[in-house]
Amino acid sequence: MTNIDNITCDQVPYLIEELMKLGAKNVHVIPALTKKGRNEYIFLIDSEEEALDSLAEFMALETGALGVRVLRTEHYPFDYEIRKLFVSFRDEAEVPLWEGDISLKIVKGKGQKPLSVRVEYEELKELASYLRKAGLKLSLHELREIIEEKALTGIKNFTADFTEEGSDRTDHTLSSNSKKLCCNDKLKSPYRIKTCFQN
């Protein structure tokens, strides 16, 4: 950790990128106020022991830092795996607007039980842009929720039914052990999403 009060905000992205190249596992920068109301940035740099010298020297070279604080911490890591979710967005006539695989990061707890699912951001961003051009008005947040809910249904083996009361219901329970799992959801918009979970 080190605090720097003599740089501008324009320098921060450069410093983060270079620290990552030098072996930092992660870099967090927190804007703060220090004595006499001066602006400063607090750099929290995750690092292995062998990269410490080069990271500290880089900060001294680039910012004039007089030193860094080394904080020893324990890290409790979770296992995770990357899996693919095949997604098909269709219009009212069942014509595909987009079909393809989306990468998901599945975090696992004790006994390898899945805890959470996160769709890869860059792929999600590209999909949101494509669907907007195709005329499907879904925000990035809505798109993430739709895809991650379907993935959770698949890996945690439960059914979420959002049909209106009195309408026809078709429940689809997904099992995480199946090679290919499919289901159809009726959305309240005139569009449908069909997803197939693949190992």
Textual characterization of the structure:
The chain has 199 residues and is an alpha+beta fold. The chain is 27% helix and 32% strand. It is built from four helices and eight strands; from the N terminus they run βαββαβββααββ. It is elongated and about 65 Å long. The two termini are 41 Å apart.
Succession of helices and strands: EHEEHEEEHHEE
Radius of gyration: 23 Å
> How many beta-strand elements?
8
Shape descriptor: elongated
Question: Which strand order spans the largest sheet, edge to edge or round the barrel?
Answer: 6-5-4-8-7
Can you tag this structure with a few keywords?
199 residues, alpha+beta, five-stranded antiparallel beta sheet, 4 helices, 8 strands, 32% strand, elongated
Short description:
This protein has 199 residues and is of the alpha+beta class. The protein has helices spanning 11-21, 52-63, 121-133, 140-156; strands at 2-4, 26-33, 39-46, 79-90, 96-108, 114-119, 180-186, 192-198.
Question: What secondary-structure arrangement, pairings included, does this model have?
Answer:
Elements: E1 2-4, H1 11-21, E2 26-33, E3 39-46, H2 52-63, E4 79-90, E5 96-108, E6 114-119, H3 121-133, H4 140-156, E7 180-186, E8 192-198
